[in-house]
Amino acid sequence: MNEKTSPTLTAYQQATLGEIGIVTWQLQSAEPLGTAAAHYEPNTHRLTHNTDVDSDTLLPASSVAKAPSPIPESIKQFKSQELNTAVKKSVPNSLIFGFDVRSVKGSLVNDILLSVGYPQDKFDKVVNVDCEQYADYAFAWKIGKEVSYQSRLLVTPPIDTLLSPAIKKQLWSVISNIAND
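The structure corresponding to this sequence follows.
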């Protein structure tokens, strides 16, 4: 019952704690002074023992390089998944705009929304935001280079250029495809 546990951590425990951002502290020597201690010299890959018998055993570099990682794959996978996954705000029953709808003169925005089946008065509006930061929206519209529509996201050139005949033709072609789907 009164057995003392070892104050040192295994390589696996150190690696796991290091992966989740916890800095580990250890005694410089786990053994009391005056006993044998092993020291690893990283540049030479030699393990020397401070005992009565002096031994220099060269460890093959390939065995040092091929040592299996003490970090479990599940932790590595979780860490990489966490970095790659951006948190998107869910806004169901909303229209998302990457520009200020109020700054657009005339009924262009309302006409486009009506033609694709989203009357403004039946949805919440989120304006002047990055559409990529939102999910589960009814419809989104952002400013880009070309006219396109994919996954309920309409991309158009700046509103002032939508008045040119060529871009209007592209826009209404895309909108007619949306309405037919």
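The chain has five helices and ten strands.
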